[in-house]
């Protein structure tokens, strides 16, 4: 089956702009989580969506937002970009039931803010 | 919130030897502990996980142990091979059945297998 896909793979933006990243989960997975990965802070949880509802949120400012569509595809938006937002943004598609609790990561979107 | 500490940050072992990476967590409610391997330029890949109702789990050369009382868990890799070289991340979360939470990751361990 197809894996998690993310678009675009690479993006260059300037400070103050906004950006929208997209994630398509594995077919049948209803949960999508977003993570930011930087050399300094490592992997940090942004938010999780399940059945079009934000189920959980990490400690990021309100400039970071997201949504999930009825087909489970998810987008995240970052407004008023700052240099420190340069990072690899990973989404993960989740299977969670009584037996399994696992995530499959997408390839990531490399965002560079100049 | 949850805090996960991971040690060491870099680990160099001879090919064929064993490697052990240790993590501690702070939230006693956490009950799911996955380990991820990330090769350079690639996405994190789940290699093994353990739930808090199990003390140890093994999959071929990889094993994970969990000590709930001490709130620490460890990854053990035996008979290391060059392809084991990567960054390994531990993580902790609360089972969504008891309340959803995202994964909290350790800072990672760069494992280097010396030929």
Describe the fold and architecture.
The complex is a heterodimer of chains A (114) and B (115). Chain A has 114 residues and is mainly beta. Chain A contains no helices and eleven strands. In chain A, a hairpin with a 3-residue loop joins strand 4 (31-38) and strand 5. The radius of gyration of chain A is 14 Å and the shape is globular. Chain A starts with a strand and ends with a strand. The mean pLDDT of chain A is 92. In chain B, the strands form two sheets. In chain B, strands 2, 4, 5, 9, 10 and 11 form a six-stranded mixed beta sheet that branches. Chain B has a five-stranded antiparallel beta sheet with strand order 1-3-8-7-6, with no helix packed on it. In chain B, a hairpin with a 4-residue loop joins strand 7 (62-67) and strand 8. By secondary structure, chain B is mainly beta. The mean pLDDT of chain B is 92. Chain B starts with a strand and ends with a strand. At the A-B interface, strand 5 and strand 10 of A face strand 5 and strand 10 of B.
Relevant terms:
heterodimer; A: 114 residues; mainly beta; seven-stranded mixed β-sheet; four-stranded antiparallel β-sheet; globular; B: 115 residues; six-stranded mixed β-sheet; five-stranded antiparallel β-sheet; 11 strands
Look at the helices and sheets of chain B and give the structural class.
mainly beta
Q: What order do the SSEs of chain B take from the amino end to the carboxyl end, as H and E?
A: EEEEEEEEEEE
Spatial gap, N to C terminus of chain A: 37 Å
Rg of chain B (CA only): 14 Å
The class by helix and strand makeup of chain A works out as mainly beta
N- to C-terminal distance of chain B: 41 Å
Uncertain stretches of chain A: none
Please indicate the percent range of residues of chain B in DSSP E strands (runs of 2 or more). over 45%
Helical content band of chain A: under 10%
Question: Major beta sheet of chain B, specifics?
Answer: 6 strands, mixed
Strand and helix order of chain A: EEEEEEEEEEE
């Amino acid at each position: 089956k197809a894996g998690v896909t993310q678009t675009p793979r690479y993006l260059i933006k300037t400070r103050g702009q906004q950006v929208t990243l997209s994630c398509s989960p594995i077919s049948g997975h209803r949960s999508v989580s977003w993570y930011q990965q930087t050399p300094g802070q490592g992997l940090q949880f942004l938010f999780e969506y399940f059945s079009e509802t934000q189920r959980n949120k990490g400690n990021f400012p309100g400039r970071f937002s997201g949504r999930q569509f009825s087909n489970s595809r998810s987008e995240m938006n970052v407004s008023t970009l700052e240099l420190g937002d340069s990072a690899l943004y990973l989404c993960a598609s989740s299977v969670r039931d009584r037996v399994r609790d696992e995530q499959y990561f997408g390839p990531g979107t490399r965002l560079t803010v100049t | 919130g949850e805090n996960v500490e991971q040690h060491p940050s870099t680990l160099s072992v001879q090919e064929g030897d064993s490697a052990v990476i240790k993590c501690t967590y702070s939230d006693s409610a956490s009950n799911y502990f996955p380990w991820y391997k990330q090769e350079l330029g690639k996405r994190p890949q789940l290699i093994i996980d353990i739930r808090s109702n199990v003390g140890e789990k093994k999959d071929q050369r990889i094993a994970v142990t969990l000590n709930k009382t001490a709130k620490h868990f460890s990854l053990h890799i035996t008979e290391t091979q060059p392809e084991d070289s990567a960054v390994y991340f531990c993580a902790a979360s609360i089972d969504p059945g008891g309340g959803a939470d995202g994964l909290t990751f350790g800072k990672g361990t760069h494992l280097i297998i010396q030929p």
